[in-house]
Amino acid sequence: MFEAGESAGQHVASGAPAGQPGLDGLSSADVLARTNAGQTNSIPGATSRSVWDIVRANVLTLFNAIVAGCFVLLLVLDQWRDALFGFSALGNSLIGIVQEYRAKQSLDRLAILHAAQSRVIRDGSTRLVPAEALVPDDIVLLSAGEQVAADVRLLDGGYVEADESFLTGESAPVPKQPGAALLSGSLIMAGSGRAVVVRVGPDTFAYKLTAEARRFALVTSEIRSGLDKVLRVITWLLLPTAVLVTHAQVQNAGGWEAAFSSGQWIPAAVGLVASIMSMIPLGLVLLTSVAFAVGGVRLAGHMVLVQELAAVEVLARVDVLCLDKTGTLSSGAMTFDAVHDAGAPPAEGWRKALEWFGAKEEASTTAKSIGDAFPAADVLPEASSVPFTSALKWSSVTFPPGSQAAGTWVLGAPDFVLAELSSGAPARRSAAALASTGLRTLALAHMPGPLPVSEQGVAVPAGLIPVVLLTFREDIRKEAPATLAYFRQQGVALKIISGDDPRTVAVLARAVGLGPGGAYDARKLPTDPLLLQETVETHHVFGSVTPSQKRDMVQALKRGGHTVAMTGDGVNDVLALKEADLGIAMDTASPATKAVARLILLDGRFDRLPAVVAEGRRAISNIERVSMVFLSKTVYITVISLAFALLLWPFPFLPRQVSVLDGLTIGLPAFFLALQPSAQRYEAGFLKRSLAFSVPAGVCGALCVLAVSLYARFAAPGSAEATQSAAVITLALVASWILVTASRPLTWTKTLILAGMYAGLALLFTVPPSKEFFRLDWPPTDLLAASVAVAVGGSIIIEAIRYVQRRLAGRSAD
């Protein structure tokens, strides 16, 4: 492996196979020989989590280890009837694996269909090949917006600026001169050239160091981080609770010696397992994964590629959507409009200069439209050139003396090319008038000699003479106005951030319904972070924005507490897309842009975004409902375990009874509820809201069970089976009402799910085989009446808790 600063040429010189390519590239026979030798750029692994990763995430967890241990213990003790939770946990894991694997297959198919491609020279002609088909010594064409797919060495005549932040963490683009190494994973930010491939596949620098971490870095998910916090708390509670419950179970059996001599330690162990297993919210993590996976599959049906499943949640939380103009609000296609007078007779050779700008294979969409308007029979040889960058806003070419277009020609944004020219006033006025009509405008200027270069680099010389103005037309996406109106209705602030002339951007902003008014000229943006934050908050349309300014603006919005999404398709959007909470790339995006985006609109339809929002909202609102139910169960079981342990009473349920209650009042209904459609708008504080209901509701449920147990022990003494049945009835009614409360607003589908739950509870107490297996029977009339009365009272209190929680949440939102 060569280091970032080492010349790749040393590697080629020492270890290249026979048949080194010339300017014509490799021959088909050379490519075939290298391919047969296994020297391809194919990297082991997939575009998403591997099958082993999915299995490990769903099976090899701390809670599953506890479940497995308890399951084996009960089997060894011949208490298999109470080991039902093991099959439930196994089912949870299998469902999670199947759902995530289906999502993986769907997303992998899309990712393969839209995988990055590279332009290579083979057999003397330019070809487009999959990045994985690159072989050593291939000649690759590089240009702005592309991602380097293998380790390469830049050949003579090339100059690029590479973003290596994926590899080194350095955010500033790094200039690369001929002979310099370019590592796979780098993004070409500016310039163009040819490079020879020196290392491919697993031998590349990026694969060995950082490709995996870069590919699978996780988006910030409030749901995932909130649940992780809850699971950590539950993990810490398990051990002390288990110790207290064990002590109570053994003391209730007469002490350790008596328990072991009489065999009562077996029921004590069963009670311990029941309490521990009930505290673990096994299905909660499963349903979260399933909800994300199903969201990814649904979005794939909308031609939206989700590069990380939890990203479906993030757009539902977004309150600021930043939009690039070209390729996002407009179609991205640039059509040449006309040539306009710049105020002076054009210099000789300007057409030849435009032919050169439009003839480059690496040309941008604007340059290609120039090439279509000014096709070149033969392109003049250059003496030197400066590539276009988003920071410079211009490019240049110098032709030698005696040629048809001798001198230096500068093509770029009028505000940058003409700004310092004493003779440029008429051209500046003409360019401003053209830009104000919504036309994209470029200026072509000329000077007789070469472009002067100072220690500070190249700059537009004062001796330039304006030659002509060029205008281009862009088509606004027809779906853009309606889509933006949707986001405004949803309370999402919109920011148009474009590198184009502010006047052109203002015209487009009015066309898509953002109202009258001009665009803020980003050249006047303050550098002070606080002033920048204030400016970005108060203005909504910006023009002449550089790539670094786009990034700074996104950072300023995030400092203001906003969740920011950024859409774009150009390499000038890469920095901002990386910084945003959610980067969204269009289908026309450069490979570099797609590499950093979390969502890719594969068919380029901007109106897909509302569907993405809907999926995010479905995921958040349904998982919030499900978490309220699961966490309520964890709370009431924990409180019951601790209360009965402190009273030295046996745990009031058998594991099989808790398992069936979980399945009927939580597991099965929650699984269907987690996949229901939901248009509920997102509000921050997912975990806070869940706990605000779950904790008091869970405590209420625990107190109801404790009250019935006290009544059964002191007011209506009876058999242990009757007391257990009364406790099961009480908890079933309270837990089912928690589910009803969390399911609102009710729909026909939800009503059927809840009706099925109550039917299952009724069958549990009426079907003889069920009653016998679960050791349930109707308790005496007075105890049954007490159970129902306490459960009704508890349900009323739960209603009051939900009402108060909603009122408090409404006030905090106001």
From TrEMBL:
Transmembrane parts of this sequence: 59-77, 230-248, 268-294, 635-654, 660-679, 691-716, 722-740, 752-771, 783-804
| Keyword Secreted applies | no
For membrane topology, the record states: Multi-pass membrane protein
Q: Tell me which residues make up the P-type ATPase A domain.
A: 114-211
Compartments it resides in: Cell membrane
Q: Does the keyword Repeat apply?
A: no
Residues covered by region (Disordered): 1-21
Tell me the superkingdom of the source: Bacteria
Recite the UniProt keywords alphabetically.
Membrane, Translocase, Transmembrane, Transmembrane helix
**Pfam families, A to Z:** E1-E2_ATPase (PF00122), Hydrolase (PF00702)
Q: Check the record and name the InterPro entries matching this protein.
A: ATPase_P-typ_cyto_dom_N, ATPase_P-typ_TM_dom_sf, ATPase_P-typ_transduc_dom_A_sf, ATPase_P-type_domA, HAD-like_sf, HAD_sf, P_typ_ATPase, P_typ_ATPase_HD_dom
List, alphabetically, the PANTHER family matched: CALCIUM-TRANSPORTING ATPASE (PTHR42861)
* Descriptive protein name: Magnesium-transporting ATPase
